Amino acid sequence: MSSKGYIALFLFVVLGFAGVWRLQQRIDVQQRTVESEDDQVMLRSSKLVKGLSLEYAPLVADIYWTRVVQYFGNKHAGKQVDLRLLWPLLDVTSVLDPHLMPVYHFGSMFLSDAPPRGAGRPDLAVKLLERGLKANQEQWRLYYDLGFVYYFDMKDYSKASAAFYEGSKNPNAYFWMKVMAAKIATEGGSMETSNFLWQDVYNTTNDASVKENALTHLQLLRTQEDCKQIDGAADEYQKQFGRRPERISEMVLSGLLLGEPVDPSGYPYVLSEAGKAEMNPESPLKKKAITSPGS
Fold first, then answer.
1. Disulfide-capable partner of 135 in 25, 98, 145, 246 (CB 3.0 to 4.6 Å)?
2. Is 94 exposed, middle or buried (0-12, 13-18, 19+ CB in 10 A)?
3. Of all residues in the chain, what percent carry a pLDDT higher than 70?
């Protein structure tokens, strides 16, 4: 490269950093003005900031992300629960650089955690993570973060299960993403979804212990469905005879059940003192139902 080329390159770098410095000064002035007035917003227009940043948007995003961490840390250290600037800062940062992964992972935690640990805005955490997934479809870990926000902070088991399962479709995702989806569906009481997911786990895993766990859950789901049908027959028996049956054999004799039903391990179901169907105390599945996680 000629001496003129080196000089041109040097000038380009100097002017570039000068442009970033001027932009930083403008942001600092605007931030101080806003904070002195009400501390409510700081450069809410992410499009405006990106327009000002030009080709330096990723660099400015790093600056903003640093401010997010400082802002959250200072508020947390001071035990202040007012985190109203958190979302505007994260909004601008994620628009400036849609591929800055820590923004989505840690930013969603900052937003979703209940006060005083966080902003108590899981809805905004979901919005941030969905933005991240739209820009980074290959990042299956964002589905993990999304699933946990739905599960722990919003108690929406259906959406949590769906998030984990969607993330599990990525060929690079850990297999336990699919297991989490199935367990949460079971916990949320979605019998059809849970059965589908546990069957999928059983069919696709090569791990013997995972396969056995999936089979146990499938069997336990069947016992729940069996007990539901037996209780339905008991309700009909009560309508016909004016009392609750004391034994399942009474429903068999009355024609409401075709034979005495047994669980997947071959043990007959029994009726509780309240007349509700349940697994036989001697059944191996009864013990698994107590000890199996997520059952």
1. 98
2. buried
3. 80
